[in-house]
Design a protein that fits this description.
This is DoxX family protein. The protein has one domain. It has seven helices and no strands. It has helices spanning about 1-20, 30-60, 60-70, 75-90, 100-120, 125-140, 145-155. Helix 2 runs antiparallel to helix 4, helix 2 crosses helix 6 (about 125-140) and helix 4 (about 75-90) packs antiparallel against helix 5.
């Protein structure tokens, strides 16, 4: 049995080498570096949304509480936005949810941009716009996972 698996593995390696493609991976070192860079970007964004953005809201830090009181949303709004950001941060690290998470976090950033302009006179309005750019990149590059997610959801129903 091991001999058959080894022969099949050698045949697929020979086939991959003759066509110049490696099955399941990018055919170039550049593609591999791009995948690693994108994954690193996802981790950095997940850390940002989970720690720097969601955590102060979820622990009720004074600065977050003041901002949400000024908006008129109170603690319920603060905890809700914090929970959404934390869920998005975690989902950015789960392969089947990456694209959907990036779109959802982008929608939150559109809302944050509008709030910054209308409530806070645009003081930090550029921050959400800057965050939308890498989120859009992640959503686009990881869009193939959406078909897998739909397949999983259909199988459950």
């Amino acid at each position: 049995m091991t001999e058959i698996a080894t022969t099949a593995s050698a045949a697929s390696t020979t086939e991959a080498s003759s066509t110049g493609m490696v099955i399941g991976e990018s055919s170039t070192a550049r593609g591999r570096r791009a995948r690693i860079a994108l994954r690193a970007l996802q981790v950095v964004l997940a850390l940002f949304f989970g720690i720097a953005s969601a955590l102060p809201k979820l622990i009720g830090h004074a600065s977050a509480a003041e901002s949400f009181d000024e908006m008129g949303w109170g603690s319920a709004g603060m905890y809700t936005i914090g929970a959404l950001e934390l869920a998005g941060a975690v989902a950015l690290l789960i392969p089947v949810l990456q694209s959907v998470s990036a779109v959802a976090l982008s929608a939150l950033m559109v809302g944050a941009f509008v709030v910054q302009l209308t409530v806070f006179d645009g003081q930090y309005a550029a921050t959400p716009l800057i965050l939308i750019v890498p989120l859009a990149l992640i959503a686009w590059v990881r869009r193939a996972h959406n078909a897998e997610l739909l397949r999983l959801l259909r199988r459950q129903s």
